[in-house]
Amino acid sequence: MTSAWRRLILYVSIALIAAVAAGCSAGDATSGNQSPPADGRIIAMTKVRNPTFPPTVPAGSTLYSIKYGSRGHVVQGYLDVPPGKGPFQLFVDLHGGSVFPVRHIGQYAWTRDIAADLALPADVVFLPNYQGYGPSPGPVVDPYDDYLDVQNGLKALGNIRGLHIARAGTFVEGTSLGGYVAMKLAANDPQVRVAALLSPYPGDALFMQWLLSQPPDALDRVDLAYEKALRQAFGKDTRSRSYGLNSFDYSRIRIPVLIVAGTSDPIMPTALVRDMYGDLRKYDRQVTLDVVPGGHAPFNTSVGSTLDRYFLNHGLNPYY
Questions:
Q1: Among 256, 312, 308, which Cα is nearest to 284's?
Q2: Residue 227 lies in a domain
Q3: Which pLDDT band, with edges at 50, 70 and 90, does 25 fall under?
Q4: Going by C-beta distance under 8 Å and a sequence separation of 6 or more, which residues neighbour residue 247?
Q5: 238 in any annotated domain
Q6: Is 235 inside a domain boundary?
Q7: What does the pLDDT average to over 95-118?
Q8: Pairing label, strands 257-262, 287-292
Q9: Contact (Cβ atoms closer than 8 angstroms) between residue 318 and residue 286
Q10: Global pTM?
Q11: Contact call for residues 304 and 3 (beta carbons, < 8 A)
Q12: Which of 44, 192, 253, 287 is the most exposed place for a label (fewest CB within 10 A)?
């Protein structure tokens, strides 16, 4: 399987779910009398038996399913560890999902098969499933909480005995909602070195500002659904704390960033992504934008090769 086609299975798109649902799935570790786990505490680390690694990954690579504490909940993720003692560079891949709180979502999550297929020959790969996705119990929450789940996941990696990660060499890739999480990390974690974003969600504040700036007849039903949901959740004042938490400070980005947008994206319009790119470029001249034919989270062998080359040129040897 070529490196580009391996990446095809990465891109789960953002779910447009405007309704806010209450409740959570069974199995939340905070139920009953059990004390909530501390942020970043490793609860379980289980070796995944007999994963099918692609031929580009050398023998000796190991896939783990890990569980750790985050915000009083249990969060699950996958961890690919290459052979050797390290220190290893770290590649964090962030999937898409819903930007509004809803009940548990099973389909927008990393699976053991995808995790095995994304193993790298010489780098640790971390694939977190935010709360409410796949094996991570509880309801889906706001984007800011997804960011905290990833932040606590990075803390958890540092608590794994014998795993030597050069955190100054952290590379992140995010699709859709995962693009917001990647940028939130880049704005707040000095260890993040490079980021690549595919159809990124720009954060609640910029999205609402963009929606309010558009002529009413220029918005489609997807845009209108987003605007209605954001109004109901947070109102119109994008200076509020809720909008601030679910956004990120563009002025704090000082790393190479590649943004890939689709020309006919019905969820993250190309004009919106261009605005995001323009705002980032005011502070960071290392940001580049690549607009390609396609819809939301567009992907083909050409885009895959572009992402591979981008990371390779910035010090990560992803698939070669």
A1: 256
A2: no
A3: very low
A4: 202, 203, 204, 205, 206
A5: no
A6: no
A7: 92
A8: parallel
A9: no
A10: 0.89
A11: yes
A12: 44
pLDDT at 226: 87
Q: What integer pLDDT is reported at residue 12 of this predicted model?
A: 42
Q: How many helices (H) and strands (E) does the chain have?
A: 9, 9
Chain segment 39-89, per-residue pLDDT in tens: 999 999 999 999 999 998 989 999 999 999 999 999 999 999 999 988 999
Residues in the chain: 320
> Is 258:228 a contact under the CB 8 Å cutoff?
no
Q: What is the pLDDT of residues 169-181, one digit of tens each?
A: 899 999 999 999 9
Helix H or strand E segment including 46 = strand 42-47
The label of the residue with tokens 């690919």 reads 80
Q: What is the CATH number of the domain that holds 121?
A: 3.40.50.1820
pLDDT digits (tens, 9 = 90+) for 193-248: 999 999 999 999 999 999 999 998 888 888 888 899 999 989 989 999 999 999 99
Interval 271-279 mean pLDDT = 93
- Does 120 fall in a domain? yes
Reduce the DSSP state of residue 296 to 3 states and report it: coil
List Cβ neighbours of 183 (8 Å cut-off, separation of 6 or more). 174, 195, 197, 200, 203, 248, 253, 257
Q: Which residues contact residue 68 at a Cβ distance below 8 angstroms, ignoring those fewer than 6 apart? A: 37, 40, 41, 42, 43, 74, 75, 77, 152, 153, 156
CA–chain centroid gap for 256, Å, is 17
The H-assigned helical ranges of the chain are 3-8, 112-117, 143-157, 177-188, 204-213, 221-234, 241-245, 270-281, 301-313
Strand pairing of 165-175 and 192-198?
Answer: parallel
Give the residue numbers spanning the domain of 196: 3-203+248-313
Contact 265, 296 (CB under 8 A): yes
Binned at pLDDT 50, 70 and 90, residue 36 comes out as: confident
Number of domains making up the chain: 1
Q: Are 250 and 283 in contact (CB under 8 A)?
A: yes
Residue type, 35: S
First-to-final CA distance of the chain? 12
